[in-house]
Amino acid sequence: MNVRIGADATKEEASAIASALAEHTDDDEIRVFVGDADEPILVRDIDLTAPIEDDMGPTEREEQLREEIADIEAGGPSKYKERLSEQGKLFVRDRLDLWFGDGVQFEDGKFAHFDGWHPDSPDVNENDESDRVPADGLLTGAATFEDRDVHFMANDFTVKAGSMAGRGVEKFLRMQQRALKTGKPVLYLMDSSGGRIDEQTGFFANREGIGKYYFNHSRLSGRVPQICVLYGPCIAGAAYTPVFADFTIMVEGMSAMAIASPRMVKMVTGEEIEMDELGGPQVHAEHSASADLVARDEQHARELVAQLITYLPDNSDEKPPRAESKPPRKSPDGIDSVVPAEPNEAYDMASVIERVVDHGSFFELQPDYGEEIITAFARVDGRPVGIVANQPTERAGAIFPDAADKAAGFVWTCDAYNVPLLYLCDTPGFMPGSEVEKESILEKGKKMIYATSSATVPKQCVIVRKAYGAGIYAMSGPAYDPESTIGLPSGEIGIMGPEAAINAVYANKLDAVEDPEERAEMEQRLREEYRRDIDIHRMASEVVIDEIVPPSDLRAELAARFAFYEDVEKDRPSKKHGTIL
Residue 345: left (phi > 0), alpha (psi -120 to 50), or beta? Predict the structure, then answer.
């Protein structure tokens, strides 16, 4: 801005004029000329980023609002906050600091259940929790977590034990509905005793009440990742959020979830049971499969989620984020030494995986449930993949009902979030027997095959060693539209293993041989003939599989195939949905 003033003006007057104009201009420089002079008597640079100083300041009204906010953020009565340390857990706002630091972008509904009270009001009794319910015991908002934008909700256990009522329910529902619009992940930091029974009118059975949580969970399922961490005993309605989430983490010595409290269980059934035995981490990690992981403490829970989210996109329209490629922890050259030649000899499939995937990327889910199958995220050359692998150290890698159920859910989740699938097959097939029939081996095996059949992400199947019976179907064999089926030289594909086949086909012939040595020789000969018939070379010769790969080249082969098929598109038949899952 150029300004020209009278010829007799002083430099002090020019400076005063420039200062006055600086408050009213968007120019970054003011030049003051005196009279007809060609050069300015004064040049004033203006920092447009600095606020203009004036005598205006916060009013008493604003100061009162800040006091109200501070009081809300203090949570419930101090006696309940003091008990948190005894329970080994953080106050909810300290928990948000742990998770997000300065990354909380904003909070919604902080004044829920405010009703005009003020911290200095003579009607407020800080020793009586019924006087007020700060934020209605539920925090919702948006934050930055590991450089990702997320929605969050967190219960305040100091406010009526984190229980849920009308206004908190409204906040929860709005957060879910906004996540549907934004397509950003949701973190549920749960510590709730369930619905507030003495306030149930207006939120329990309403169209926009607590039941809508699970309607929205269902709509969000497969659209955006929903991740839940449990910090306390979540009972009844509160227990449904963790089971609806895509991934649930419980904390040792702290978490529990159950359809009813131990007291209610005793009332209804007469059974006396402690909370941990009823619904603690061990119950849900080993038996129900409702917990994907168990954390040691609050810090560890955050670390687990921070690692988990690196394998997932923000929503179902995006691909998982790539990372820098890292060599495996151990050389792929050792793969063939890890896999025994005999089909029934045990070995740890994790020893194969660590020679295939990027160092530090192996992230197993539900490790204590259905242990005959490994389900894990990992990276191959920086690309996230979901691994479904038989585990020969656990019941020879046979597929039991729990393992099939676990694999089906994992495959379905990977497909929802565009995570390619890697199947590592070494199984004698589905386990037969009366007990597994009672445990729904057919029903749960069906779900695993259905999930594998319906997945539209790129799939690679590796026949590591044995692939017998319907195991080859569940593990995405040639009939299941994998992008590739490749074998290692130790591989075999057949209706059943050599021992079972010989007993099934040649039982009468063998029984007719009386001499034990002659019988043993015949069994060995028949066994070798059968193994030649199901050998991976025979399968490759008949083009049943695509290729036999030297084990040392397996990682490079998979990296090349996942890269090549990265953009493959697959369509499901036009229909509303299947009926299996």
Answer: beta
Burial class (CB in 10 A: 0-12, 13-18, 19+), 182: middle
Closest to 357 (Cα-Cα) out of 417, 424, 408: 424
Q: Is the pTM of this model over 0.85?
A: yes
* Alpha-carbon span 358 to 351, nearest angstrom: 13
Give CA–CA dist 248/52, Å, rounded. Answer: 50
What is the C-alpha separation between 329 and 555, in angstroms, rounded? 12
pLDDT (0 to 100) of residue 87: 87
Query: Tokens standing for 432?
Result: 């037969």
CA distances from 301 to 95, 125, 230, 251, 308 (A): 11, 36, 9, 7, 11
Let me know the angle formed at the C-alpha of 572 by 464 and 378, rounded to the nearest 5 degrees: 40
pLDDT of residue 213: 85
Backbone angles phi, psi at 320, to 5 degrees: -60, 150
Q: Measured on CA atoms in the order 219, 246, 464, 371, is the torsion positive or negative? A: negative
CA distance 295 to 231: 10
Amino acid at 38: D
Lookup result for tokens 């007057």: 13
Highest mean pLDDT among 52-61, 71-80, 127-136, 382-391: 382-391
Tokens of 455: 């997945």
Q: What is the dihedral of CA 45, 49, 52, 53, to 10 degrees?
A: -100
DSSP tally for the chain: helices H, then strands E: 21, 20
The predicted structure's pLDDT at residue 3: 87
Distance CA 241, CA 234 (A): 9
Cα dihedral sign for 560, 566, 570, 576?
positive
CA 35 from chain centre, in angstroms, equals 73
Cα–Cα distances in Å, from 363 out to 305, 350, 375?
Answer: 11, 11, 9
- The structure tokens listed for 475 are 């593990």
With beta carbons less than 8 A apart as the criterion, state whether 88 and 297 touch. yes
- Sorted by sequence, the CB contacts under 8 Å of residue 33 that are 6+ apart come out as 2, 3, 4, 5, 39, 40, 41
Give the strand pairing for 138-145 and 104-108: antiparallel
Within 8 A by CB and 6+ apart from 313, the residues are 225, 319, 320, 321, 417, 418
Q: Which letter does DSSP use for residue 297 in this model?
A: S
Starting at the edge strand found earlier in the chain, the sheet holding 2-5 runs 2-5, 29-34, 42-45
Own/partner pairs, 445-450, CB within 8 angstroms, 24+ separation: 445/399, 445/401, 445/404, 445/470, 445/474, 446/580, 447/404, 447/405, 447/408, 447/580, 447/581, 448/399, 448/404, 448/405, 448/407, 448/408, 448/411, 448/474, 449/473, 449/474, 450/408, 450/578, 450/580, 450/581
Task: Give the distance from CA 330 to its chain's centroid.
Answer: 27
pLDDT, tens digit, 9 for 90 and up, residues 456-493:
999 999 999 999 999 999 999 999 999 999 999 999 99
As a dihedral over the C-alpha atoms of residue 480, residue 483, residue 487, residue 488, rounded to 10 degrees, the angle is: -130
The sign of the dihedral angle between the CA atoms of 182, 185, 190, 193 is positive
Please name every residue paired with 396 in a beta bridge, in sequence order, or none if there are none.
Answer: none
Tell me: the pLDDT tens digits for 237-263?
A: 789 999 999 999 999 999 999 999 999
